[in-house]
Each structure stands twice: as C-alpha cells, then as structure tokens.
Amino acid sequence: MAISSFLSLMLAPPSPKLYSYSSLSSTCFKPKPTTSSSFPCQFQNGNVSTLFASTVGVGEDLPVDYGEWFPKPDLENRRRAGVQLHPTSFRGPHGIGDLGDEAFRFIDWLHEAGCSVWQVLPLVPPGRMANEEGSPYSGQDANCGNTLLISLEELVKDGLLMKEELPKPVDADRVNYSAVADLKDPLITKAAERLILSEGELKSQLEAFRRDPNISGWLEDSAYFAAIDDSLNTFSWYDWPEPIKNRHLAALEEIYQSKKDFIDKFIAQQFLFQRQWWRVRKYAQMKGISIMGDMPIYVGYHSADVWANRKHFLLNRNGFPFLVSGVPPDAFSETGQLWGSPLYDWKAMEKDGFSWWICRIRRAQDLYDEFRIDHFRGFAGFWAVSSEAKVAMVGRWKVGPGKSIFDAISRAVGKINLIAEDLGIITEDVVQLRKSTGAPGMAVLQFAFGSDADNPHLPHNHECNQVVYTGTHDHDTIRGWWDILKQEEKSNVLKYLSINEEDDISWSLIQAVLSSVARTAIIPMQDVLGLGNSARMNIPATQFGNWGWRMSSSMSFDSLEPEATKLRNMLSMYGRL
C-alpha cells in the first residue's frame, strides 16, 4: 500500500464521520371514500429503487413484486466489533509507539480482520509529575495532544528533521516515559522551531490552526500554563506567585513577552500532533474504521483547565480544592479509590451554560468519531472526599448535574456519539440518565462469573444498546485473569461457555463477547494475542508500573494474519462484519 502517497493528500482536518442511513419508509395516503377496510402503503424496493403507492382494500391483489418487499437492515445500528489498542503500545524505534507507519499498518490489519472500531485511551499529554507515571488519565490538559506520539520519521518526510538527526533505535518492550521524553522532546522542539521559521503551505496551515476559534481559546491557556510551568518548576500552580496564580493581565503580558518563543513552539508542536493524528483518522475513515476516543470525567488539579477556569471548580479562596474526586470501596480497592482531582462546581457551570464542557465536547468531536466518557455515573451522583483525607472511603455522595448538562451540549453541538462508562456502583438514577441520553452502557465479561444468573455482565443479560468487553484497560488480560481466578469462578466459566480446561480461554471469551446481543464488542489487543499478566495496561488504585505495555518489536501486523483471519471468521459468524 502506498501509504506515503496517501499521506501527502491528508493536509486538511477530516470532517466527522456522519451516518445518515434511511430505513424502509412507510407513508400513509388518504383512503378512498369507501366504507371497506383498506391497506395504505408506500414501499421502496431496495434493489430497484421504485416506489409503489396505492390504497389496497382487504382481499385485493398486491403488486406482483410484493414478495420482494423485505425489511431493510437498520444500518445505523448494525452489529460491529473493534479492538482497543493505545498508540503508545505500537512497536517502534524510539521507545514508544507513534502516529507513523505502524498506526496505518494497524488500521489495515483491523480492516483485514473485519473490525470497524478502533478504541484508544485519552490522547492528552500523559502525567509527568511524580507518581503519575505516564497516565493518560492524569494529564496536564484536557484538550492538548500527547506530543510524545509525534512520529519523528513523519517529521523527516515533512522536511522538519533530517534523517541523520534521528536517534539510534531503542529496543524497549515497555514505555519509559521520562526516557522517551529525554529522547524525543528536543527533536520535536527542533522541528517546531524550523516550522516557525519556514515559509510555505505548512506554515500557512500552522497559522490557520492557531487562528481557529474552536482551538485558540484552550490552546492559548495551555501554552501560557506550560510556559509558566517551565519557568517556575513548582509542584503545582498553587505555589506560583500571586499575580500569575490569579491571572493578572500585567503578569500574563510579562509571561508572553519573556516566553514568546516557548509559547510559539508549544503551539507549533500541538499543530504537528494534530496534523499527524488527522492523517491517521482520515485513513481510518477511508477504511471504514470508526475511532472511539476516551474522555476522563475529571481533570488534574495541576492543569491549564483548572488554573484558567477556577470558577468552575470547588476551590477555596486561595485556589485549593476543599473536596476531591474518588469512589467508595469497590472491586478494585477495599478502601475505595482516591483520585484526588478537583470536583466541578456544577451550579457555577450550569449558570455559565456549561460552556467549559461544550468546548471540551467540541474538541472530542475534532479528534474522534465517537468517544466514551469515563465514570459517567458522576453526572448523576458523584463521590466527594475531603482534600485532607488519606482514603476515599470517608467521602459522601453528592447530586450531579443530571440531564441538564446533556441538554445544553445537545443545543450547542447537536447529536454526539457517546458511550457511557457505567461500571462500578450503578444506582437507578445513573441508569435513567444514560437512557435519557440514548448512550450505550458497558458490560465486561470478566465481571460476569462471580455471582448468580442475574449478573448484568453475563451475556444472556446484555442489551442491544451496549458496548461489551472481554476486559478494559483497567482489567488484567484474559490469560492473566484466568491464571489467578478462584476455582469456583473457573467452574462457572467452563460450565457457562461449555468449554473445558484445554480450550484457549482467550478466544473462548472473545467468542462469547462477539456472540452477545450487544451492538458493539471491543477486545483489547492483548487478548487477541493471548498474552498474560505482563501485558496488563493498568492496575487501578496503584501508581507505579502502569501504562507501559507495548507490542513486541518482533511482532509485525503482517505476521498477525492468522489472528486477523480467525477474528474475521468469528465476526462473520455473529453478524459483525
């Protein structure tokens, strides 16, 4: 495949993938003035595209082609399947996956396997502070892209780097984020400098990106925040000098004058990320692949989002959170999970028309075809913990904004393709809120076998409007889960799936997920590969050793043709092609 020639055409941002399918139409006509019963109808023959319209009385003849008036499939709700694989997990020569050739090869593999969805984790800059260890759920900005995903080879093709400037290949089976940053940041910065000093089409695109009203607002805040953070190097913006901390205009002007080069390069790097991601997304659309993004409900305290929008968060007069996020004791932690993110001031947000959320949703639509909101239940009721607490179990439930936020978003941006992560403690108000938005919920097969037949994660309890997983990024791989599963649950699995110990447990659960009535089935790539615990992406409520898994450097997508064929055959069997 001539990827390079295709990429040269991908200079403009893609339009969101719109689905506008018409189902079998049926329009009533005025009956004839008669007392007998009649059959008003208008049918469209899907093969011939001819219309028949008449009023047929009971017992009268129907048209000769009546036997061909079959129901049309509801293409908008067709069954489908996809794979979850974050770009950091691609193999590649610089210690981390990127948006270069390997991303396009993966899309080709998905297409060959019959998949129509690629789910990624948040594409935001990962946390680089102590204890964040590269988490895409602890980023410094809700809207910026992760510049570590920028492909150096693509920058060479753009003429912004020279081939001899590229570093020697690094064979790393896990991502070491600090080492990757040391390796890639200087080169990406150099490419940004050259772009700023250049003339021509690429420079014009950068200037248009900077002027885009849907981008410029959050981008400017992010650039200023990064410039200040680079200068002061404090633990959080709470420790910044008062004029900067409180965004006094004179202080911000001084930052702009003293850090203009940094701000310009920051914006140029965001443009380079956006350009490469748009190429990938547009190629995916061409191949019939919908990209499903992921949006954490909360944002980190040390972020441009909180610093620039203090009135929207529950902070004291000095700007420090008095309540923070988390969840009560759950399947992952006996003391709950203390996330520590500042909570939203939902009353203030509603008074402002939820403008911050509308901006965030527009940005998500700019990046993805559809997206999942993590911890959807927080919109109905959220767990609030004192910022001084050491564990999450001492918190309290508080009322969320409910349907009002989604009504405001709908009025501002129209229909959004949203998936609601509704795992954990799900009360009736969460269920009703999700249904009111029309968003599909989730089911996870690894949760299914520890209780009784009423377990909502068991396939016979799945719903059509649902996304079902073997496991998510927060779960072990199937193989890792199976290796430590209690014998009672193992027996439940074997009995329910009608398999024995000798069967491939990974593919057995994959088949169970694909056979579900749920419209969408998602399988982590680790399960397709049958990998064990070492390939797990994240262990909730832990701070170290997460987010690092990568595909082996010896494992090309070309070599995974057998897996693609096996997956495609299963998708065909269960009507997901």
Plain-language structure description:
The chain has 577 residues and is an alpha/beta fold. Helices cover 36% and strands 12% of the residues. The chain contains 19 helices and 14 strands. It has helices spanning 3-7, 101-113, 152-157, 177-197, 201-211, 213-232, 242-245, 249-258, 260-286, 304-308, 346-351, 355-367, 403-413, 428-437, 478-484, 487-497, 505-514, 525-528, 561-573, and strands spanning 38-44, 51-57, 80-84, 117-119, 290-296, 323-327, 337-342, 370-374, 381-386, 396-399, 418-420, 441-444, 466-469, 520-524. The strands form three sheets. It has an eight-stranded parallel sheet with strand order 11-8-5-4-3-14-13-12. It has a four-stranded antiparallel sheet with strand order 7-6-9-10, with no helix packed on it. Strands 1-2 form a two-stranded antiparallel ribbon. The longest helix has 27 residues, at 260-286. It starts with a helix and ends with a helix.
